[in-house]
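Q: I have 445 residues here and want to know how they pack in 3D. Can you give me a structure?
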Amino acid sequence: MALALSPAEFAGIRSRHPLVFQRSWKKRSVPFLVVGGTILYVLYAWWFFAIGAVLSEGRWDRAGAYLADWVSYDVRPTLRFKGEGIEVTYPRFNVLGDNPDPDWVRQVDGRTVEVDVGGARIAATPDLVTITHAGETLEVDLSTGTPTAAEPVPGWAVQKEDEVDADFGFTGSVEIKANRVAIEHRFLGWANFIFDPNSPFFGRSTGEVISLILWGDRLDPDVSNAALAFDNFWNNGEWQHGDVYAKLLQTIIMAFVGTVFAGLVAFPFAFLAARNITPSRLVNHAAKRFFDFQRTIDGLIWALFFIRAFGPGPIPGIAAIFFTDIGSLGKLYAEALENIDEKQREGIRSVGAPPSAVQRFGVLPQVLPVFLSQALYYLESNTRSATIIGAVGAGGIGLKLLEAMRTNQDWENVFYMVILILVVVYAIDGISGALRSRLAGNDHH
């Protein structure tokens, strides 16, 4: 039963013991000090790293262009003026193959070419370029030798010193100069993802491809159309599916082998590091310092070291994961051993069992599920780490990803590989999560 005090009794107690009811100024000031310190630190970090200047000078337009390249592709026809005629040319390497003839580019006659770029229409002659977009029309005079836009210039166009540029948003743009009109037309999706321009299936509709595979005449007398289609997909020159999947498998193997070997080596050393298992302080200290040394050096540094020793390839990646995880898993295993229930050990020891039996039946049943659960978690984590390690030369999809990024043009390939990595990590996460749940005894099936 709670003791109820009248206001008068409470006031009497407070008057007799004022210090009990008086809050210390130190306790009252702690929240203000924490908030003030946090604000000062944020301001200092903002100044030290010049975050304001970085944000103001950032090329956000480039970021948008890179993101667009992840999910789209462009075709770049160029209208070149040859005397009184116009020639339509394309870059040497383009997604339309060696003989491009898109239906949105029409050669009306020798002097006129019409191009549809999304919601814009361009009609070009050697003397005049007319652009219609968003309900507005812009005429650019080329007869004087310098492109000159007629007034008023719409908001989507810009008159420069020796050229006129027009931007149609995501769908594309046009650059008009005295001797040529350079057009960019962007399309949503990934070009030539299934077949590249060198494939006999290139340019055919889905129905035609299926018909050829199922009952059409052989395109190559030596192999069936189905085998030819798979070979053309697997060895796609632009997307390199076969090489990408081989590198992805290499990354998974790197993570798996490195984690398994690290767990096997960390297992016996953990018993030496656990104080309740090995009574020698010298052995405990030596084993723990060994773990500290292994995990203090990051896996990326180990990878660089082993690349110098063994050269590029998966072996340095496996060795880097192996050496790093020995320390991390060893420390976790040792802590799990030090937190076991000693009653089970005492019970087995009381019946006269030898030390090996005490460890086998009194310790392992308690810690083995924990050991396996932690190893599975590190396997999931190392799948992501193996990608970063591979980027420095240790093989796997990380190196393939870095090569695609270096070209600064194959961002759709980068996105493709990122999606594959996400799918693999998600799958390993689900599998390891289910196994950890089963090991922990939480399986409800």
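Q: Anything worth noting?
A: The radius of gyration is 35 Å. The chain has two domains: 74-188, 241-439.
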